[in-house]
Amino acid sequence: MYNGLLHAHSGLRWVVLILLVAAIFNAFSKKKSGTWGAGDKKLALFSLIFTHAQLLIGLVLYFISPKVSFTEGFMKNDVLRFYAVEHISLMLVAIALITVGYSKSKRAATDAKKFGAISTFYLIGLILILASIPWPFRNLGGAWF
After folding, report:
1. What is the pTM of this model?
2. Among the four 28, 42, 55, 94, which has the fewest Cβ within 10 Å?
3. Where are the extended beta strands (E) located within 15-57?
4. CA 131 to CA 25: how far, in whole Å?
């Protein structure tokens, strides 16, 4: 079960990243003169949905993973500290920001404000996500897939 969830979490990361980049690019390109349409709403919504699905898989992994250990001295170990504290904290903040951005876009009065909320909050969320992914070059035990 652990390996299957880990592979799903790792593979779904790419879907989330592609959707977030697409939503951000779409919002920035239409921010000044675009009209908010059904396609824009769907792109923002699918980004939100897949991000939340990734969160749910991540939470299950957090509680069953051997990489999360609260043993004595775990804060001195870079890998254990990353998975037990840094990764989950930054991801929760990023997903909260993406959720706030989507909510603000739903309530915004003008199309420019809708695109502005998506572009701002999704971009900050994406930056936090990119910073807290255990990329292989960071020597944290992560893989590309």
Report:
1. 0.92
2. 42
3. none
4. 19
